[in-house]
Amino acid sequence: MKLNKRSVAFGVALALAGVTAAQADTFVNGDFETGTTAGWTIGGGYRASVNNAVLNPSLILPGGALYNSTIANTHSAVVAAGTVDPNVGAAFGSTVYGGNYSLRVEDTTYGGYASVATQTVNNYTDPSIFFAWKAVLLGAHGTLDAATLIIKLTDLTTNTTLITRQYNAADDGSGVDPRFSYLNNNYYTAAWQIEQLNIDASLAGHNFLLSVLASDCQPTGHWGYVYLDGFGNVAPPPTGVPEPGTLSLVSLGLLATAGAAARRRRQKV
Predict the structure, then answer these.
(1) Does some domain include residue 15?
(2) N or C: which end of the chain has fewer CB within 10 A?
(3) What residues have CB less than 8 Å from 171, skipping those under 6 apart?
C-alpha cells in the first residue's frame, strides 16, 4: 500500500506534539432499525401546570424536576411499519418513514404527560444531518396550555439552535402552519417533514444535539405526540421505495424478462 507523504508527515507532527485527533461520533440507531431506543436518551414526566412558554426537555430528562422513570419507560415506543395512527387513522398515512421502525415520542392518549427523545453526536464531520418527523396534536385551549411539540437541532459547540420546530394545538389554529391538516379536532402532518442541515466548514467538527419533545395539553385532556425517524447523515428512502441498489436489480430483472419474451416471439416466427 502506498502511503501519502503528507498524511505521514502530519501524523508524525501530531505524535511529536503529543496531540491525539478527536474521534468523530456517528449516529447510533438513528433509524430505530434495532427495534429499540438504544443510543437515545428517553425522558418523560407529568407536565400539568407547566405552560408551553417554560416547557423544555431538561425538565423531563433524567435528573429533571418533572422526570418520572415510569412515564419515560412506558409513554414513548418504537412502532413498526404498517402501524395505523389510532387517532387520525388512514388519513395520517405512514407512521414509519424509512425501513421497518420509527419512534413515537409520547403516547397516543391524554393525561397531561410529556416525553422527550435526545441524541448527541460529537466532533461531527459528515457533510449533512437529516431527520424526519410527523405529529398529531389534539386541538383545544390557547397557545400556552395546548398540546405541543418542540423539535430542536442544537450546535452544542457554539450553543446555537440551528433547526427549531415548535407547534401547538391552540383551538384557533394559531399554533400551526400550512404543513398541518385538520381532522376530528386533530392537527396533524399528513406528509413526513424532512429536515436537513448542511455541515459547512464553520460547523465541521462541532457537537450536535437533536431533541424531540411532545406533550399533552396542560389541563390534561388532549393528546400530543410525534413520530421520529431517519436521524443520520443521509436521507433514507421512504418506506416502500426501494434503495438505489434494489432499483438497479429490479431494472435488470425487467430487462431480462423483456429480453426473454422477445426471444420467444422470434422463435415463434
Answers:
(1) no
(2) N
(3) 139, 140, 141, 142, 146
- Per-residue buried b or exposed e for 120-158, using 16+ beta carbons within 10 Å of the residue's own CB: ebeebeeeebbbbbbbbbbbbbbbebbbbbbbbbbbeee
Identify whether the C-beta of residue 103 lies closer than 8 Å to the C-beta of residue 63.
no
Range of the domain at 227: 22-237
- The answer to whether position 245 is within a domain reads no
Residue 194 to residue 212: CA distance in whole angstroms: 14
How far apart CA 80 and CA 256 sit, in angstroms, is: 34
Query: Cβ-count burial of 30 within 10 angstroms (0-12 exposed, 13-18 middle, 19+ buried)?
Result: buried
Q: What is the CATH number of the domain that holds 197?
A: 2.60.120.260
Three-class SS state of 149: strand
The predicted structure's pLDDT at residue 26 = 87
Q: Residue 139: its pLDDT value, please?
A: 98
* pTM exceeds cut of 0.85: no
Instruction: Give pLDDT, residue 22.
Output: 56
What's the total number of domains in the chain? 1
Work out whether the CA dihedral 76, 97, 136, 129 comes out positive or negative: positive
Q: Does 3 map to a domain?
A: no
Backbone torsions φ then ψ of 190, nearest 5 degrees: -70, -30
Q: Does residue 244 form part of some domain? A: no
C-alpha cell of 192? 413526513
Low-confidence ranges of the chain (pLDDT < 50): 1-21, 242-258, 261-262, 264-269
How far is residue 8's CA from residue 173's CA, in Å, rounded to a whole number? 61
Q: In what order do the strands lie in the sheet with 160-168?
A: 41-46, 113-124, 206-215, 148-155, 160-168
Burial of 23: CB neighbours in 10 Å, binned 0-12, 13-18, 19+: exposed
